[in-house]
Structure formats: structure tokens, C-alpha cells
Prior knowledge:
Blueprint: E1 8-11, E2 18-22, H1 33-41, E3 45-49, H2 66-79, E4 85-90, H3 92-103, E5 108-114, H4 123-136, H5 139-149, H6 152-157, H7 159-170, H8 174-185, E6 200-205, H9 213-223, E7 228-232, H10 239-242, H11 244-257
Parallel strand pairs: 2-3, 2-4, 4-5, 5-6, 6-7
Antiparallel strand pairs: 1-3
Helix pairs in contact: 1-11, 2-3, 4-8, 5-7
Amino acid sequence: MDAxxxxxxxxxxxxxxxxxxxxSLGSDxxxxxxxxxxxxxxxxxxxxxxxRGHGASPVPPGPYDLEDLGADFLALLDxxxxxxxxxxxxxxxxxxxxxxxxxxxxxxASLVLCCTSAxxxxxxxxxxxxxxxxxxxxxxxxxxxxxxxxxxxxxxxHPDRAAFLRSMISEVPAEGYxxxxxxxxxxxxxxxxxxxxxxxxxxxxxxxxxxxPEEHSRPIADGIPGARLEIVADAAHxxxxxxxxxxxxxxxxxxxxx
Length: 258
């Protein structure tokens, strides 16, 4: 388990409560832009980072596992001299968050798990997507990816934003994307969810075709002691981007209650 120094952007007061945002497969830290200003206005120190193999972070050779992504997060906290942080993770970022909640509970103040899964099968789907990306590049999966990230109505209203997100996916290095597919392929956190002790909010998009709430989000909320589930209407997989006001309201409500 060798951590890599992930690219990060840190904003806000040094003495503010720290909130770290971990992103989706195929994204970079720009996916969290809708949440930054509202949290800064409430006095939080906001840390966003690119997952290994994504954005401006290093692209070590695969395979990757959740243990590796968790190690990167812990190394980030150590590098910033942060003892404990709130973690907001979407999709792959939420998976890493659950792993950390089990394996590094002393470093996690709370969890917000957005549009994610504790077991995201079938494994063959992820193996096939990794093969496609290694053969054809991430541009080959950018269109379908945005089709899962956003509802058809939002795509129709905001073609410019859809194009921005397609370019975001297309810019991800093929090895990084494919190796993260492997981490998801091998993931199964269902049985360890009861070990998570951090206060946890689970947020789902009602129209998420990738991780439908009843199939993916509810088992997480049911498995983590005391977790709460909120389902946001008119949101697909990148719910924080499509419904930023509601996702941000729920995140702030959870953080400020603590």
C-alpha cells in the first residue's frame, strides 16, 4: 500500500472544520465547484483533490484497490497536518469513504456518501469497461458516462455543461480510469458497514441510473448504524452538480449538526 501525493486545492480558514471532497470515477476536483463557496461562507476549510490516476494527480501503474485510495487520503491529511476531517464522497469517493470509515475511524469526523454503492456489480461490467478504456481511451466512455451523470432533462437544458463534463472524463488518463474500474470491480463492503461509527448521511439521486437508491443507497444507510438516507428528486449520478442547492443544503445541515 504505497500512497501517492494527490493533487489538491485547499481553501478557507486554517482553523475552520476541515471538509474533504472525494470525487467520482472519471472526474477531477472541478466536479465539486458548486459546493465550494457555500461551505467557505460558513467557515469551513475546504479540501478538494484528484483521485490517483485522475486530473493532475500521479498515475501509478495498476492495479488499484480501495486500500490504495484510502492510503492516498490519509497521506493527504498527514501532508496538510490534519488530524481528522469530514469526508464528502460521491460514487468512487464514497466507496473510499466507507473503506476509511472502517479502517481509519480516528481520522474521519463524519461521512457524507453521495450516489455510491457498497457493492457495485457485476464485476464483468467493470472489467469490460477497463478493457475498452485501455484500448480506445477515456473519450470512448465519456458520452455514456455523462448520460449516467445527468438526467435527460438537464442534458437538454444545459448542453454546455454536458460538454464540459464530457471533456472532463475524456481528459482522465486511460490507465488511471481503468485501474479505478478494477478497484470497483473487486469491492465488497456490505458486510463491514456495521463497523462504521462516524455520523453518516447518505444522499441519493432519485433518477440515478448507475446507483439506483433502493438497490445501492438504502443498503448503505441500513448497514451503517445511525445513518440517514435522503433522496433528491430530479438528480442522476452526479447529483451534487445537477442539484447543487439541495445537495449543498443537506451536506451543510449534516456538518453543522455536528
